[in-house]
Every structure is written in C-alpha cells, then in structure tokens.
Amino acid sequence: MRRVLANQELLLIGLMALLVLAVSLKFPDFFGLQTLFNVLTASMVGILFAVGVMLVVVSGGIDVSFLAVGILSAYATVKYGPQGDGPFGALPVFALSTAIGLGLGLVNAAVVIVARTSVLIATLATSSIYLGTMFAFVGGEVISTLPQPLQSLGSTHLFTAKGAVRGTTSLNILILVVLVVCVLVWAFLRFTIAGRSVFAVGGDAEAASRAAISVPRTRVLVFAIAGAVAGLAGIISVTLSGRADPTTFMGRELDTLAAVVLGGVAIAGGKGTVRGAVLGVLLISLVTASLVPLGIPTIWQRAAVGALLIAGILLQTAIGRRQRIRPILDAPAPEVTNA
Amino acid sequence: MSAPIVEAVGVSKRFGGVRALTEVSVAFRPGEVHCIAGENGCGKSTLLKVISGAHRPTSGQVIVDGTTYDHLTPRQALSAGIEVIYQDFSLMPNLTAAENIALPRSVAGGRRLYSRTAARTLAERAVVRLGVEIELDIPVGELTVAERQLTAIARALAHEAKFIAMDEPTTALTWKEVDALFAAVGRLKEAGVALAFISHKMQEIFSIAERVTVLRNGAVVTSGRPDEFTHASLAETMTGRGSQSFDRVAPRNKNRAPALRVRGLGREPLFADVDLEVGQGEIVGLAGLLGSGRTEIAEAICGVRPAQTGTVEVLGKAINVRSLSDGVAAGIGYVPADRLTQGLFLDQPIGDNLVATHLPARRGFLNGPAIERRKSSVVRDLRIKLGKLTDPVRSLSGGNAQRVLLGKWLVGEPKVLILNGPTVGVDVGSKFDILGVLNAQSLQGLGVLIISDDVPELISMCHRVLVVRSGRIVRELSGDQLREDTVVEAVTA
Amino acid sequence: MPSERFRTLLLTMGGRASFIRLLVVAVAIVVVFGVLNPSVFLSGQNLQYVELASPEVAILSLAMALTMLTAGIDLSVVSIANLSGVVAALLMTNGQSTGLALLGAVGTALACGAVNGLLVGYKHVPPILATLATGQLFSGLALVASGGTVVKGLPESFTRIALVTVAGVPLIFWVMLIVAAIVGVVVAKTPLGFRMRLVGANPTAADFSGIRRARVLLATYVMSGALGGVAGLIISARAGGANSDYGASYVLLAVVIAVLAGVDPEGGYLTVAGVVIAAIAMQLLGAGLLSLSVSSHVVNICQGLLLVTMVLLNTWGTALSGLFARRRVTA
After folding, report:
1. How many CA atoms are closer than 13 Å to the CA of B211, on its beta-carbon side?
2. Which intervals of the chain form a coiled coil (chain C) (predicted)?
C-alpha cells in the first residue's frame, strides 16, 4: 500500500506541475514567486487544519469540530487574552490560543471515550456547542483592531519580492510556524511509539489493545494535538487577515476534509501522511489560483475541486480493490494481481 | 517437577448469559508443551485471552511467576513475558510485518521512541529464528493468510518470552511451514520456555505435547500425558460421545437427473478441471485442507465468485451463474463458512433472518401473512429454540443460530444445498441435530454438498467424499474406501 | 386493551428504548417552555413558525436517515437540495411553467442521487467519501448555475406553496407528513426497505443471502436524492429564491436529528416517526429558547448538549436502568 500511497502523492505533484505548466504556457508570468507566495499564503491556515484532521482520521474517526475549535480559541484569545507588548508580545497570545484549542480537544476526547460514540457524532455535538458558546457568551461582532503584536506580525514577511506584474509580493513569516508544526507532527508519527500507536489504533483498535497499546490514551493524545493545532491555526488566520471574524470558517468543514482525502489519507483510518495532507491543501489552493488565468471564472472552483475529488477517490478505490490472490493451482504463477 | 511459570486458578468467564469458562485451573511449566484440546467453542481461546489480559475473568486468578493477578492487563502480561498467538492473529493490517512484530514489546516496555531500523532488525532476527520467509516491509493486510499467521508467530518469538501460547497456529500453513514451526517449538522448549498449544488436530497433539488438558463446554474434563490417551479415547473425551453414525440409506436413483452436475469448472489461479455430480437425495463431501481451493470451488458453483470456464447444471438444466442471486434463482443454496460475518444478521430479528433470502412479496409490497407462515414453519421444522421471533439472532446459542442459517436456505426449497463447514463452533448435541436435518432433507430429494475438514463428520454423513488438493479434485472415495485413515491420507498427501 | 394497543402502536413506530427517550424529551420541551413562557411559546404564531420551519429539516433528515439505514451517510443531500432549488428557480425565471420547474428540480435530484448510488453501490466508494466529493461537485454546479447570487423573482404560483394552509395547517407541513408516510411504507412494507435494512446490518451477509447489494444502494441514494430535491423546493419556496449556499449547517443538523431519533449510523435501524418527531422537537427547542429571548446561539449549545446527552443515554442507559432496577429490588 505504501507504493500506492506514494503514487497518490506523486500524482498530486504531477497534477500540480501540469496545472502550473498549462497556465504558464498562457501566462509566462504565472510561473514565478508571486504564484508561489499566493498559493502558500492561501494554504497556510488550511494546512494546519488539515494536519490536525489528518491525525484524527488516521486514528480512526472523522473530526468536524476543528474549525469551531480554531475560531473559538482565536476569537476568545483576541477578545480576552493578553494584549502583549515588546518584540515577543505575540508569543503569549499564540500560546493562549493553542492552549484553549488543546483544552477543547480534550473535551472532544472525553465525549468520544465516555459516550463510546463515533468521532463524527461526538464532534458534531461539540462543534455546535463551541460555536454556540462563542456567539452567545464571547461575542459575535468582528474585531478589527487586533493586539499590537499581532498587527505587526501580520505584516512581518519572510520574503518580499517584486510582483510579477506590479507592486510587491511577500510571504508572511508565520509560514515558518506552519513548517515547524508539520515537521513536529511528522516526527511524532514517525519516530515515537505514541505516534506509531496512532496508526495501530486506526488500523485495528482491538488488535492494538491486545498489543498493550492504551486506546483511550492514544485517543486523548490525538485530540489534544489536533485541538492545539486547530487553536494555532485559528490565531494564525486571525493574524493574517488582520481581523477576528467569528464567522470566518462557517460551514467550511467539508473543504478541509476534501483536501485531506485528496492527499491520500484513508477515511477509514490507519493510513495517512503529513505530506499527503499538505499536498492536498496546496493542490486546492493552486487550482483556485489557476482558474482565473485559465479563463475559468472562479465560480467554477468548487465544482472543479469536487470533480477532482471524485476522480481521485475513484482511482484510490480502484487501486485499493486490487488484491493479491494466493495461487492454489500447482502451475507456478508468479505474483498475480486481480481486480 | 519445576514450578509453573503461568497458572490459571479457578478461572470463570461469562459473556452476558453465556458461560464460556467454569472454574478452569491449569498450569504451564517451563520446557513443557501443554496442549489444550477440545472442540470448537469449548473455551480454549477464551482461556488464552484471560491469560493474556485481553479478557477480564469473571472470577478466579492468573498467577504469573508467583505473582497473583485478579485480572492482568495486556501490558502487564507482555511485560511478564507472556506472548500469545491469537487465532485471528490480532495484527494491525495497516502496519508492516516488521512493525507488527516489534511494536508490542516497545509499548509494553514503556519505550518512547521508535526506530524503523531497530524494528526491522528485530523482526528479521525473529523470522530467521523461525526459519521461514516473510516480506517484512509491506503492510500486513496485503500478505496472504499464511504469511500473516507466520508474522503472528514471529512476533511471539521475537522477544525473550517465558510463556508462549499458540491458538491453532497451523490452520493456514503448509507442511513445510508447520515443520519449521515445530522445530522452533522444540528449541524454545530446550530454552526453558513454557508453551501452550491449542489444537483440535490429533496428529499435532500427539506429536508435540508433553501434557494434554481437555476442555469441554468451558470446563476441564481431564488432564494427562499424551501416552495415557489413544486417538479414539482423546476424541471421545473432547466430544463427550462415542462415535456415532447415520444410516446412509437413500440409494441414489441413477435414472433421475443429478441435482447438481459440474463440468470443467475452472478459475485461474485458484482451481481447474472440476467435475462433480451430486445426485438427488445424495450427500457428497468435499474434503480438503484450508487453502486447498475447496471454498473457492463451492463459491464458484453458487455464484459468489463465478468461474471462468465450465458448466453448471441443476436437475439437468444448464444454468449461468454470474452472481449469488442467479444461483438462488436456479435453486442452489449456499451456507457460508463464517456464520457470524457472512451468514447472519446478528442484531436483526430471528424471523427476518429466516426470510432474508426468500422474501414473499405481492405487487411490490411484502406479503405479511405469507412471511409469518414461512417463519413459523421453519422454526417448527428445524426445532429452533427461541424466545420470540423478534428477538435478535445474537440471543441464540451457536447450535440454534446455525439452524437459523440453515433454515434461511431451506425456506426457499432449493434443489442443491452447499454447506461450508456446517457444524463449526456448534455444540455436540446441536451438531447431530443439524446433521439429522440435512439427512432428512436429503431423503426428500435435496442434493447436499458438504465442505469440511472434519473427517469423522464427513464419513458419518456422506455417501461419497471428493478430495480437493491444490485446486483440483484428486480422488473420490466411497463404499469401503470411505474410512478416516484413507480420507486423511488423501487430503494431506 | 387500549394500553396494549398503544404499546403496539409505539412498537411499530420505534421499538427501541431510544424512541421512548425521544418522546420524553419532546414532551419535556413542550412542558418546560409551556410553563416558562406560555403566552409566547403556546401562541398560534409560534406554532405556525414551527410548522413552517420543520418540513425542510425533517425531509433532509429523512434522507440522511435512509442512507444511515444502509450504514451509509449522505453528506451531499443539502447540496442536492440547493442545486434542485436553483434549477427550478432558473426554469421559472426563464419563463417556464411552475410544473415544469418542479419536474426539472426532481429530475436533477434523482440524477444526483443516482451519481451517489453508482459510486457507493457499483464503485464501492465508502459513502462518506463519495458524498463528500459529490457534495462539493453539486454545490459547485449550483454556484455556477446561480451565478453566485440568489436567484430571485420566483412566480407567485410557486412561492404560494409555502403560504397556503390546508385545514389550518401549512401545505408544506402536509407535504412533510406525506413524504414521511411514503418513506415509512417503503421502509417497513416493501422488499426494498427490508433489504436496505439487511444491507445496513451486515453487507457481507446480505451478499451471501443473494441480495443484490449494489442495486439496493443505488435505490437508497436515489431516494435520498429525491428527498433532497423536495426539501430544496420547499426551501426556495419559503425563501422566495434559490442559492447555492443555503443551509450549509443543515448537513450536520440532519445527522444530529437522525441520531436523536435513535437511527443507528452503523446501519440496520430506522424509525420514520422518530425522525419527524426529532426534527419537530429541535424546532420546538429553538422556538422555546427564543421565546425566553435568549440569544439564538444558545439554541446551538442546547442542540449540541442534547445530542451528547442522548448518545450518553444510548450508551449507558441500559446500564443505568439496570442499576436503578437493582436498587429497587434491595429497597
């Protein structure tokens, strides 16, 4: 299966290359820093959400509360949190939002474990509780004056280059945070026993518990990390957009899930990579960025992503259904595959 | 005698209302292979799961190295050097074989970091120690059943275990692989490891056991050295009955068209050139080891996985089976091997299970009265013991559940009934009732094809036994040739 | 005996303990808000609001519940509703008759359902994936068709559907009851419904019982799509326009209602009466909370809490009642 998964990731990269090529043929300017920066900037928040969701999906469940967690953490932090000052003033703000996200993740874990229900249903419930709490008790109005450190962070760029046509194009410094989180989650999944346990639980929870893995503890860990990452994603989104709008993500859950699925994460659990999730988000951002130069109204974006998703899923299922059959007949038949 | 490494003392286990184990006490000593024998469903596997911490006993204790536990956790068990090879392997299908082999110890040992190379080295060593070959770097879910079984065995051997329990470890293996396993068992024995070996295969029990404990209905019946038993006495202790047989009347009427005639059935690379015939009122056995192609042949005849070549006739009429519903329409019934996952809708009402295949309808709507009539007539005919027809099948005992499965097919009055392991996991009394029902149905003209590796059962039931090996029918035994030794020999040759 | 007859009636509507719990919750909502603020909650206006708001939600939930019966899920149902609504609205604003527009909407919905059914039944795509993807596609198409705005200017002959009352009850409420009755008959009284339940309970055993699973699943998703279409028409009649983004939160609400009704997402059990009651109960809860003039967002919280409570009860309910019974014996 690893070959297949790698194939899916290669496929995504190939598809992205094809898109860039197609658009660049028409507009040579498209192939440049501006597009890269635009796609990366558009993907930053999505990547974080996707990585968190990927973790939960790998452990065997579909989380739909991550956007509620993200925006509640960020909005509450901006409204009540430290205003912060000095060069590292943003640090406590980011830490608080991440911590709130972590706490909400723990609530998710508690509901899943105690009610012994599916993650989908548990997070459906918690997400409407989180959103309701935000609007009812924290507030519903857009906060357009952010704490000073967030404002300056929002305009601190890692790179600034001349725009393809005019003006300048830049990449925010927060891309480093996104990168660090991706590397950390990747390392967690690959190099720690707890990370491998996430895969084990997602593959077969019963077998995992017989192999001495504590299934509840693994779940708690997964939801805590996913919650913290969502909280971080929320505050980054607020910082980048320069305002805290509680309705930012309303009803966008399926978009992130779509990206994760495109990235080859198995929705039934047990399989998935950080790389895949990131590629899925990047592909969708690139599709969006390519539509206009290709002469397709942006209004087609969603339909295009949907069609892409169906194609990807059909491919994945077609490959997944090929099974090795152990030959029974004496005639030596070297490794036969059969659809 | 040396002190036991692992000991179960008065262990009882209930699942809801069902008693799986009653006051079982058994001790496993270093350097000894201790066989736990018994029929399917006697509680062997449950006992192992209590010892490994997968199940919590209702009462009783497990003593490991002198420490008494009311209930072990899997982690405690692993840390104490207890390894279990489960019947279902209990592997994580999405992880590689190497990781499956290495991970449990790292978890139980409280390690934090995982190293792919270390896992790989450990797994390689275990596989070499076992003397077999497994692809270590692809997910276990893509391995064949035999490779998965070997992975599970390698996992138990990978660590310095003090006690290794094996739950029917040989079912999917070839003779060569079984020899390798037995050689490994011999080495472990010399190293002072205590071994529990669960099996219901006589040859295996007598060839490697130092001690045999027989379980029946969840309780210990007897325990002793293998030389205190003969094949026959051990079998009798396991089943609790002497050998019993049916009157094989119903001489087949050569003039009538056979209920089922199969010619030249084949499907690459599973089976080829299958010719067989089941007369009306005849019971034919299809004997073969797991992986011999017996299930594949049966599934091809009834349409689950159609054949590529060959013809199938029912009552002399050629039929084209592309799917199971074609088979049903043509009068072929198929009772699958795995009752729980393939045969029954466990949480659905008993009555609805009975009519699932043959559903009376009128003008697009369910025919309620006809459905109720069918349900009650099957319950009456098969003497199914139940509370209400609306109770879920889950509430039934193994024997009654199997009768429901049988009834589901008999309700459509098929011409041919193909049964895959019809008495697996069924208690002795019900087993004979079920075989009795089949016998009675065959007297009324039903052609029956039974697939089984339970040789005594085949011999007591069948007019003829066909032997499958490597995807081909290699022998037909009938009359005087139909003896336990000849069938076993033909099957395993 | 009347109590016996009542018991039988209850059993045909939903035999599980979860159904009784739902009834208790529904009654409790009416009683609590009836006592707390009788003048508003029990007013005709409030009742009418509930009657008008329930049908679309109930019909979408029925669609969701049907797919859950087969152990599936239809995340695309709201997208289908919106696409059908947009198609109907475009037909009408381009001068076609209302009847043709209704046909066009239902045809669109059936086609969408068939796409889902083909993916799930014949291509063996997990339902959650298939409908996640088609949902994106359908709502994307609706977005394109509508041009990203609300298609307005619907003829009065259409918008009147949402205003007409029959015997003092809004027409769309009657539509909901009729749709529910049809679904109930299909599920309980036809071979298709019987087979849907078995496919949901154990797909492998269904295959081994000679049930053509792919066909059953296709029929299920076509039905679910059709219900989505009907809901879409009701939504646009009520709103006086159609748009691709209407009721994005309805997907989750439909799942919540189905689960509240006791429908098993793992398949094999459906109570149509339960779904309708749960949908109305959710609207009553909303209306009740609003009648106490709390923030409309407290409604969200309460819906979430209610779902958690019901799931907890479904998991631990039997254990709790066992505890209770034992205590009574010792007392």
Report:
1. 16
2. none
A·B CB contacts under 8 A:
121
Tell me the DSSP string of C162-219.
GT-EETTEEHHHHHHHHHHHHHHHHHHHSHHHHHHHHHHH-HHHHHHTT--HHHHHHH
Question: Which residue in the set B107, B139, B271 is minimally distant from A1, CB to CB?
Answer: B139
Is there a single domain that holds both residue B219 and residue B267?
A: no
**Pair (B469, B365) in one structural domain:** yes
CATH number of the domain where residue B424 is located: 3.40.50.300
Nearest to B113 among A192, A266, A328 (CB): A192
Q: How far is CA A261 from CA A63, A277, A309, in A?
A: 13, 8, 8
B320 located within any domain: yes
N- to C-terminal Cα distance for chain B? 39
Domain count, chain C: 1
Please report whether residue C331 resides in a domain: no
Spell out the domain ranges in chain A.
2-161+170-338
In a domain? residue C285? yes
Residues B136 and B276 in one domain: no
Tell me which residue range forms the domain holding B106: 6-239
Residue for token pair 């007297």: B443
Instruction: Give residue C182's domain range.
Output: 21-27+40-307
Whether residue B307 sits in one domain with residue B203 = no
Would you give per-residue pLDDT tens digits along chain B (493 residues)?
678 889 999 999 887 667 788 899 999 999 899 999 887 667 888 898 899 888 888 899 999 988 898 888 888 888 888 988 888 888 998 999 999 999 988 888 888 888 888 889 989 988 888 888 888 888 888 887 778 888 988 888 887 888 999 888 887 777 677 888 888 888 888 888 899 998 767 778 888 889 999 888 888 988 989 888 887 788 778 777 655 555 555 555 566 788 899 999 998 888 989 999 998 888 899 988 777 888 889 999 988 888 899 999 999 889 888 888 888 888 999 988 777 778 889 888 998 999 988 888 888 888 888 889 988 888 888 878 777 888 888 887 777 888 888 888 888 888 999 998 777 656 556 677 777 888 888 888 889 999 887 777 788 788 899 999 888 998 898 888 888 778 877 877 6
Q: Are residues B222 and B279 in the same domain?
A: no
Cβ–Cβ gap C268/B348 under 8 Å: yes
Q: How many domains does chain B have?
A: 2
Based on the domain organization, do B57 and B126 belong to the same domain? yes
Q: Does the CB of C118 have a partner CB in chain A at under 8 Å? A: no
> Are B463 and B441 contacting, i.e. CB atoms less than 8 angstroms apart?
no
CATH fold of the domain at A2-161+170-338: ABC transporter involved in vitamin B12 uptake, BtuC (1.10.3470)
- CB contacts of A309 in chain C (<8 Å) are 132-133, 136-137
Whether C319 is covered by a domain: the verdict is: no
Q: Global pTM?
A: 0.84
ipTM over 0.85: no
Q: Specify if C1 maps to a domain.
A: no
Q: How far is B138 from chain A (nearest CA, A)?
A: 7
User: Is the Cβ of C309 closer than 8 Å to some Cβ of chain A?
Assistant: no
CATH number (domain holding residue C126): 1.10.3470.10
User: Which residues of chain B are within 8 Å of residue A193 when distances are taken between CB atoms?
Assistant: 103, 106-107, 111-114
B324 vs C contacts (CB less than 8 Å): 207-210
The answer to whether residue B476 is domain-embedded is: yes
| Contacts C304 to A, Cβ<8 Å | 124-129, 132
Closest CA–CA distance from residue A148 to any residue of chain C (Å): 30
Cα of A323 to nearest chain C Cα, Å: 14
